[in-house]
Every structure is written in C-alpha cells, then in structure tokens.
Amino acid sequence: MVDNGDSLSLDDQICFALYAANRAVTARYRPILEELGLTYPQYLVMLVLWQEQCDNAADISNPEGLRISDLGRRLRLDTGTLTPLLKRLAEREMLTRERSSRDERVVEVRLTKKGAALRARAQGIPGRLLCGLDVQPERLIALRTELQDMLRILEETGGSSG
Amino acid sequence: MVDNGDSLSLDDQICFALYAANRAVTARYRPILEELGLTYPQYLVMLVLWQEQCDNAADISNPEGLRISDLGRRLRLDTGTLTPLLKRLAEREMLTRERSSRDERVVEVRLTKKGAALRARAQGIPGRLLCGLDVQPERLIALRTELQDMLRILEETGGSSG
DNA sequence: TCAATTAATATTGTGCACAATATAACGGTG
DNA sequence: CACCGTTATATTGTGCACAATATTAATTGA
C-alpha cells in the first residue's frame, strides 16, 4: 500500500480523511453546542471574542471592539460568511455590531453581557469532547501541530505558481 | 503551553485546526477541479464511482450500479446532500440515475462514458496538489493515518452515552 | 476640490451539510 | 388481500462557505 500521490482511491486521499474527520468532529460538537444555542462556526466566533476580552482585561472601558475583518483573518472566513452569521448572533443578543465613529466603513463587534456570560457555560466543552474520545492527549496535540503546520504551509505557498 | 483540554483559546483547539486545514486544502483543490467542472464533493463522488468501476472491471455488463445509500455510507453523506449533488452531475451527463427494476425504492448511479473518461484527466490531480506542498510524503501518510484513526474512533463511540 | 483609487462591509447566487419530515416501495403477518 | 413496520430516496428549511459584485467611506492626487 505505497502512496505515490497518484492514487485516485478514496481511502488513499488525505483530503478525504480531513474532510470526513472534520465533519465527524463537528457532528460530535453539535449536540453540546446546541445546549448553548450555538452552531459550530458561531462557537468559533465566540471563542475569538472571549479570547479578545481576556486580552483586553487590563482596559476598563474596552472602547475598541473587534473588526469583522480581524475576525475574518483569524477564522479564515470572508464577509459573505461572517456578516449573516454575526447578524444572527446579534439577534440573539450575544454581541453587538456597531459602525466605528472614527471610520464609518468599519463594523466593530463586541460581546454583550449575555455573550460574555456564555463563556462560563462553554468552559467545559473541550474537556467533555476529549473525554468521550479514547485517544492519548499527546497524540491529539501532535495531530493539532501537524494540521497547523499544514495550514501554515498551504497559506504561505499561496496562489498561482506551482 | 500545556493543553489540558480545558482551554478556550482558538489556537489550542484541534477542532479549529481541522476546520481551517480542511478548508485550506479544499481551496487548494478548487482551481484544479474547476478545470474538470467539478466541485470538491462532486470530485469525491466521482472518486467512488471510478473506484467502483475498477473493482467491477471483470464484469462486462456491469448491471449493478452504485446505490445512493452506498455512496452515502462511503462518503458519510446523507440524501439531503447527495440527491441534489447527483442530479447536478446527471444534468452534466457525468452519470445516470435510474430506479432499480428489482427494487423500485433504489436509485442506481452509473458513470456515463463522459464521466468515466474524466478519470484520465483527474489522474494527475493528487500529484499536482502534493507537488506544490513542501512536506515529506511520509508525514502526509502519517497525518492521514491519524485522521483515519480519529474518524474510526469517533464513529465507533457513536451516539448518546458518554 | 473633485475624480480616481483603495478599503471595509454587504449582497446575491450557487452548492454543500444536515435535521426533520414526506413519499413510496418492499416484506412479512393475519 | 389489507395492515404494518422498515427501507430508500426525496423534499424542505436553516446555516454555512465562497465567488462575484455592489455599496459606502476613506484616501490620494492632479
């Protein structure tokens, strides 16, 4: 079973392994996130906002807010995905969307109290997921590192030449 | 940077690494598959059909065809995804959808000549992708194995108990 | 100052994913 | 045969993803 990279067998394709594993993990998250009223991409957005709030804990007034473009950079998502997603989260009062007064093009996203409070309920989620998984933590960390490396390589060797 | 599984940091989450890497790989495929007029999930369907055709090479008449339910099992997709996808591929004459005469519930999917011929043009795709990627093949195979293991574990420890 | 350019977000359209439900066909039992 | 539970696929509705385009605001430059 040598993989010279030219096989068209489904089972030989790393791309399919990635595709199927990703959906399986998302499916595992789904019922847990449903308790919080979040979809998986919405959860990722909240993770960024919660992180941001921690980083800005020193500031009292937190005047900045996170731009949609910054969210997009972190999550690798564009506005076609983020705009409606953020509107749904805003409808549920998890966050606010406000035009920046300094630059009217910019929309600043901020957690509401409700959104910030949700963090406590999300705290146990990563643990609960790994819990049901019979895999050594070191192996998961190794896998994560490999995936991050691959992502970095894919993003660095970007566009047209190949 | 210890990961006890309780971090809510985006960068610590294997789930995000999986999510982002999957989309990055899919994005890398997109322009190549566009040459064949296929989306990425459509490509996966074609992979299964091409494989099936190879396996049945001994049969001359190939009366069986692949059931939608079999496709779904292999790709881990349900009819809500597959039915419209297969209709689009049928419109483009890549495959045919026919009710089984023996069991009218079943829809049998078969490659057309055009669909079968596309295999030749797809042959080089895995190679072209890995080519632009500065990663040792062994590392990719190891990553694939890890992902397949994870998928298996996720599917075995299935539903409600946790 | 005002046209041109750039930047940030929004909108539109297509194609997945998936939950929930519907439809139709099979298979067995009385 | 009529009834019933099961199986296979289809349909509907919601929510991503992403390409392409539009909109509005800031910036630059004659």
TrEMBL record, chains A, B:
Compartmental location: Cytoplasm
InterPro entries: HTH_MarR-typ, MarR/SlyA-like, Transc_reg_Sar_Rot_HTH, WH-like_DNA-bd_sf, WH_DNA-bd_sf
A biological-process GO annotation: response to stress
Keyword Transcription regulation (UniProt): yes
Matching PROSITE patterns: HTH_MARR_2
Domain HTH marR-type: 11-159
Alphabetical keyword list: Cytoplasm, DNA-binding, Transcription, Transcription regulation
GO cellular component, one term: cytoplasm
Presence of the UniProt keyword DNA-binding in the record: yes
Segments traversing the membrane: none
GO molecular function, one term: DNA binding
Official protein name in the record: MarR family transcriptional regulator
Organism, as annotated: Marinobacter salinexigens
